[in-house]
Amino acid sequence: MSLDLARPELLEPRALIAGAWIAGQNRSDVTNPATGEVIAHAADLTAAEMRQAIDAAHDAGPAWAARTARERADILMRWHDLMLDNQEDLARILTAEMGKPIAEARGEIAYGASFIRWFAEEGRRVYGDIIPGHQPDKRIMVLKQPIGVVGSITPWNFPNAMIARKVAPALAAGCTFVGRPAESTPLSATAMARLGHEAGLPDGVLNIVTGSDSAGLGAELCRNPKVRKLTFTGSTEVGRILMRQCAQNITKLSLELGGNAPFIVFDDADLEAAVQGAIMAKYRNGGQTCVCANRIYVQDGLHDAFVERLGEAVAAMKVGPGLDETNQIGPLIDQPAMDKVQAHLDDAVGRGARLVAGGRRSDQGPLYFEPTVLADIQPGTRLLAEETFGPIAPVVRFHSETEVIAMANATEFGLAAYFYTRDLGRSWRVAEALEYGIVGLNTGLISTAEAPFGGVKASGLGREGSRYGIDDFLEIKYLCAAV
């Protein structure tokens, strides 16, 4: 298919290892979920080629770490500028390979670029410490140094931003990087890599290994002793596997895993603001985000009005291919995703849930599902226990603050939560009681480069973004000097 790009060379099907573009012996089809058309035939590399990429990153590490923070920052800033200069092409590639509406794709490119800019600046502020000595002749200094080769495994739902959120702090800290993008969305990664190379990243500092052998490529990243840190975004189930594989080498881990986000609306909330916040938190990317509102709890006094207003707003949303500017909901990523959404809907309706809006597969194509609102959700419904990753909003009535906090926390996950209230005291009480790494108060949009992104409990380890986000890419060295 033709994407009508200003720079067609950004549609790069090859992988990048040690500064060379590698086609490999095998290819895998990259398919547009909106149409079923093949966009490109991407390099389908093996664990042996992953080892080559790790070796290249390892060899390039000392020279990159020896550069001044300012030199690294200058290259990252050029990369940031190139991403924004080519925002439209990057967005069109992203929408074509994963399906999200083009306006959201443009937003993702800007969001991803913001991490490169943030960490270009933050890398110049990696400060050590001088600690008062414990003896008169002793001086204690604390140094922060790059951890070394960083391996990355990223998902398909944000194929640009999830890489940017990992590669930017790694490179700013002086580490080198080996990225393994999702099999279904490799083209955003290779397009970013082309621009990074153009910005002046030295050979071997950034490597992108594409391929369909998830287990083999991932195992090499986990078990290769030259990889000193692995950063992963994906399911909790896979996160547990990676932890086990990394244990042998005691490889440092950052894990951003599954979520089951509650969205709570109290009686004193601004109804229209809460409805609009729920739409942003639930239906962005067709519900295919880890911080999506998965369970919506509305207090008695506002419940009926909220359900009615949300149903009206959702029924008016337009479904169709993401490259059409008028569409708000694109396709799901693949058939298993569609099957899960349908199974969750059938389970809820079978238990007595009331259909308020949507509830059907769209006639746009096999991977389209109408944005849906359900009310009268019964206990035990799969929608409440599992992450749906699709455009279904289950609304549950609640009575008291204590009750809803207990319901919101009744999950192994702890990534994101949202609540709406105009009561100052309740704002503090609920924010402190929710067992989540991220809490949105009176907002459905919570992600920004300036803030620490990450979860608690089974939702992961570590934080991305903010001044804390560079810490996981640094080792602390204590120097004790006798004078």
TrEMBL record:
| Keyword DNA-binding set for record | no
Which residues are the active-site ones? Answer: 256
Q: What molecular function terms (GO) are annotated for this protein? A: oxidoreductase activity
Q: Where is the Aldehyde dehydrogenase domain?
A: 21-478
The organism's lineage is: Bacteria, Pseudomonadati, Pseudomonadota, Gammaproteobacteria, Chromatiales
Q: Where are the transmembrane segments?
A: none
Q: Which protein are we looking at? A: NAD-dependent succinate-semialdehyde dehydrogenase
What keywords would UniProt list here?
Oxidoreductase
Q: Which SUPFAM superfamilies match?
A: ALDH-like
The enzyme's E.C. designation: 1.2.1.-
Gene3D superfamilies on file? Aldehyde Dehydrogenase, Chain A, domain 1, Aldehyde Dehydrogenase, Chain A, domain 2
Q: Which Pfam families match?
A: Aldedh
Family per UniProt? Belongs to the aldehyde dehydrogenase family.
